[in-house]
Every structure is written in structure tokens, then in C-alpha cells.
Amino acid sequence: MPVEIRSNSRYSSLTDINLSDNELLGIIPEEFGTFKNLQTLDLTNNDLEGGIPVSFRNLGKIRELSLSGNNLNQDLPSFFSNLPQMSLQVLDLYGNQLSGSLPDFTTFTSLKELYLGQNQLNGSFPRKFEKISNLSILDLADNSINGLLPDLSALASLRELYFERNLLNGTLAEKLDPLSMLESLGASSNFFQGTISETHVANLSRLRYLDLSNNSLAIEIGSNLSATFQLETISLSSCKLGSSFPRWLRTQTNFSVLDISNTGINDSVPNWFWESLIPGVRYLNLSSNQIHGMIPDLDFISGNQPIIDMSSNNFSGNLPLFPLDIVTLKLNDNILSGSISSLCNLTTLSRLDLSNNKLSGELPNCWNTLNNLAILNLEDNGFIGVVPESMGALEFVSMISIRGNSLTGELPASLRNCTSLLLLDLGENQLSGKIPEWLGESLSLLLVLSLQSNQFHGAIPTSLWMSMRDRGTLRSSFEYNAVGLVRTRLAVRARVVFKVLLQWKGRRSEYQNTLRLVVSLDLSSNRLTGEIPGEMTSLLGLIALNLSRNSLSGSIPQDIGRLGQLDFLDLSRNNLGGGIPTSLAQLSYLGFLDLSFNNLSGRIPKSTQLQSFNGSSYAGNSNLCGVPLLNVCPGDEARSTNQDISEQESDDDKLDKRFIVSVVAGVAFGFWGFCGSLILKHSWRHAYFGFLNVVINSFLLRLELSFARLRRQTSP
């Protein structure tokens, strides 16, 4: 608080203080409690921490207190104990780090609006919760509140109720009937069960916003529903709507947001639905059902930059016309066919996913008109021809995947202008030529590169390794706001997940994760020659590396152990020679390894990690020996035990026996409880081995010495 305000008595009569959005730091000053005439205090969107000062109890006239968007981290019951109870009408604590359970609100008799969303609250509802009868808005979203909903019949004044993304369970339907004033209900992403029918919602004549998504709710509303309410937002994703397209939607003629994705629909979309769509539709999601039939032209929708998602269905036919101002279009995983040239006019498009369809023809050379694209996914279709030069005009694009088509020719040099690229996947095409140096020189943000299963030849450019260096720490999750999909306080944020496909022992394996966790390079199944550049080991954040099925020569870089985050390594089916570097044993997180069918020689380095892989990981290297291969290395044959035993070894015999007995007993009791899990679950085994590698090595050394002493003692 400014010093002049603290010290000047003329400010003591202040009734309203607004210091929002000022980057204020530290704790809330005690001096605020001296403004006894204060009615409104707004400190939203700062960096304040701690809790509420005890002096706030003196603010007997305060009606509105807004502290949202800070870092307050006090226990909520303690927080409320420092607040005036009689006058407060609006309390906004949304988006802080407040913890603890919900306190007893019953003494706050004037409270009308309470915002506690996006904190760290837990526990269940207090017994007297329903007695705060003046509440009109209650926001408890994005916490960890559990248990059953309380009786809400006394909260007849509620207009907005939000408790989405908590841990609530039980039934919901019977709680709704008394809430006749309700306009907005957000109950998504909990554990509610049961059935909601028209009788449960018949009394909600004012309802405009309904979000029940991601619960185990069955929605059984008949087609004869009387239109007692007109919803503007309908979000029922992952509820159970039945196999038929919901006919009760015919009574809803004013919605701008509709999400009935993953609801079990196995039907065609009736004509009345397409005809009833209003031009102002902002969000339409029919994805992850089994809807079939053709999509009609939807270009009459305009003016609100709509998002349309009809992915993962059985839609067929050619692409229809879409709104000229559409921003997101997802039609992936259908059976759509034909050309995509009709998309050239969608100049506001930022995300386009047409993957896994039957689309064909050449890619249109009009990408310069789509220069707002951030995500482009055309993989697994039947496109032919070359990668268009105009694709280089996508200067803001972050992800391009055209994998699994029949594209030919060389990579156009114009792609060097796509300097925002984080993922480039052109695998499984028929592209040729050398891998250009500019891939590494210009695309300096690249996190994921896949050129696998093409016809590239020549050496691997050194610039590739340099451009991807230290990318493991780069934050690379992508979020987009679906403006207006939910109430303005809580915009939808969706992190984009890409499936990084790698070749593993000749099979296509899916390495799926958020991009913030993946740094991947796949150049497998090409015609690459030369050595693996030593600069490769500078990619300290590398997670997956696949150079298999090429003609690479030379040796595996000796300091490959520097790649401490490596989880996937495939160098199989090349012409690599020399030994396996001992530093490879340092890769504690390594979960996939294939060095088979090279010219490697010598001993497989000893480590718990490397010996845990199957022998097939090292097969086809005739001069390689050691566990897990059956080839015994020279010098590993049984050694003579006719050596002198020192007096100290004799003194340790009893200790060694007790040590061995305790080890055997421990294994007998614990094997299937823990070790059995490691054997049965591959990923657990490698993670655990990485954690205990050093401990186990020292343990095995002592165990081996103990057994040796015992054998020498008992041998004739």
C-alpha cells in the first residue's frame, strides 16, 4: 500500500479501493483494516501471498471483497475467521492456493456470491452448508472436494452453481428439482451416477447453461420434452445418451454451444438437427461416437469464429463447405474422401486435423492463405504429389504432420520459414534427396522430427543435433481458449496431444504424451550413410532416438551415457561396429533398446539395466557376448577355487551365512509382493532399475563374495 495512503488521515473515509492488476507483491497489509468505511476492496490479479489480516474483522461495512488471481495460501477456515460476518455480500477468492476444508458459512448471513474455485480445498461439505440461504452464486470448481452433495432445497435463490472438476459422488438428479431459479449448472468431471430424466429438469425453466460432462450419468429425456427451458450451452460429453441421436434436442433452438461427444450415439444425424443450427453456433462437438452419413454444408454458420469437432465417427463423403471464420476444424478418424481444396478460403483457421481419412489428390498450393494455422495434421490419408512450396508461408505453425501418405520429391526449402515449428512428422511417405542442413539451422525450436520410412540418403546433418539441443526443458504444451464455451471466468484450456510413432523391431509403436515430455528424433528406414555424429550426445533432453534400418557405419558414440533422459533407443539394422560403450549402462530411464543386426563386438557392459533386456535386443551381432546372450565371453568360464583362504575370510563365514539366509528369506516373502510386479510390468521394471542401479550393484557384489566364501568353505 502506498505510504501516503497509510499515513494520511483524509483517506480514512474511503469507501472503495481498486488496486487490481498492479503486480503487487508480498502480504496484504494490516492497514486495510483501518478503513472502517470501506465497502469495496478489489485486489484481484496481483501476486499477493499469505492470508487475510486479523484487522479485516474491523471492516464492518465491507460488502465486496475481491482477491482472486493471487497466491494466497492460508487455511480456509482460518481465512474466514478473520472476515467480517454480517456485512459481506460478495467474496471472490477464485484462483488462489487456499487449502483445507469448507468452513461453517452459516454466520455469513448476508453472503450472496461466493467464489472459491481453482484452489486446493478438500474434505466434504459441512453439515450446515444448506443454511446460507441468500446465496445466488456459488463457485467451488477445480478443487478436491469429496463426498455427497448436501441438501440444496434451502438454497432456492441459487442462480449459478459450479462444482465441476472435484471428487463428488452419489446421485445428482434429486438435488436439482428445488432449484427453480437456477440459470447455470456446472457439474462436470466428478463421479456422479444415476439417471437424469425430464422430471428432474422440468422445474428448471430459467436454465441456460448445463454442463454434466465426464460423469457416469444416463440422460433419458424423451422426445416429447416440453421446452420449459432454452439452453444456450449444452455439454454432456461422456454421459450416456443412448444409441439414437437425442431427439429432445429438437426442442432446443437457441444453443450456441453443444458437446455430445463420446455419448454412445450410433445413428445418422437427422436433417432437422442440421436445419435447426443457428448461425451463431460457436462450438459444435459430436466427436467419438459412431455417427454415420454425410456432413452437409455448414457455411451458413458465421460471425463467432466457431470450433467444429466431428472426429472419431463414421462420417463419409466429400468435405462440405465450412464457415469462413472457423478457427478449429477436427474431422480426423472418419472415412471422408476426395480433395481438400475447398479449405483454401478458411483464412482464420488455426487448427486443422483431417488425419486418418480417405482423402486423396495433391495437396493444394494455397497454404499462404491459411497463414494463421498453428496445428496441421493430414496424416494417414492418400495424398500424392509434392509438399507444396506455399506451406512455407505458415510462419506461426507449431505442428505439421503429413505422415502416412504418398508424397514424393524433396523437402521444399520454403519450410525453413516455419520457424515456430516444434513438431514435424513427414514419415511413411516417398520423399527423397538429402536431409537438408536448414532443418537444423532454421528450425531452431524443433522438438520432434520424424522422417522415417522415406528414401532420404546421405549423411545426417550435424545441424540437427545442434538445433534440438537442450530442448528437454522447453515448455511446449499448447493451449487454446474456446472463448465462451463456458462461463467467462473459466475458459476452456485444451492441451494438444500428439502421437509420436516410432519403429520398434519393425513394428509401428505409439509413443503418446504431451509434447512438454517428448523430445524425439526418428530417421529410421531410410538410406542414410556415414557415422552417427558425436554432437548427438549434446541433446541432453532427448527422450527417443531411432536411427534403425539405415546404412550407418562407425561406432556408437562413447559418451552416449550423457543422454540421461533417453527412454527409447533403436540403432538396429545398420553397419555399426566396435563395442557397446560402457556409458550406455548409465541410462537409467532406458525402457526400449535395440542394437540388433549390426557388427558390434565385445562384452555387453554389465549393469542391471542392460542385462534386463531380451537377447533379441542384441541379436545378429556374432562377436557380441555376455548376458543376456548365450555367447560366453572369454575369461568368464568357471574359475578355479583352489586359492588360499585368508584368516579374515574364515572369520566372516558365519556372517556370510546369516547374510545369505536373510537374503533368501527376504526374497521369499517379498518377491511376488513387489519384485513380481516388476517382472510382469515392463515399464515398472525399468523405472525401478534406474532408481536402484547403484544400490543393487553394491549389493550383488557383496552377495557374490559371500557365496564365493561359502563355496570355498564347503568344497572338498
TrEMBL record:
Name the UniProt record assigns to this protein: Leucine-rich repeat-containing N-terminal plant-type domain-containing protein
Xref: Pfam families: LRR_1 (PF00560), LRR_8 (PF13855)
GO biological process: defense response; response to other organism
Family: Belongs to the RLP family.
Source organism of this protein record: Lactuca saligna
InterPro entries: Leu-rich_rpt, Leu-rich_rpt_typical-subtyp, LRR_dom_sf, RLP23-like
Taxon lineage: Eukaryota, Viridiplantae, Streptophyta, Embryophyta, Tracheophyta
Transmembrane segment boundaries: 659-680
GO cellular component, one term: plasma membrane
Xref: PANTHER family: LRR RECEPTOR-LIKE KINASE (PTHR48063), LRR RECEPTOR-LIKE SERINE_THREONINE-PROTEIN KINASE FLS2 (PTHR48063:SF101)
Matches recorded under SUPFAM superfamilies: L domain-like, RNI-like
Keywords: Cell membrane, Glycoprotein, Leucine-rich repeat, Membrane, Repeat, Signal, Transmembrane, Transmembrane helix
Major site of localization recorded for this protein: membrane
Membrane topology: Single-pass type I membrane protein
Localization annotation: Cell membrane
Coiled coil: none
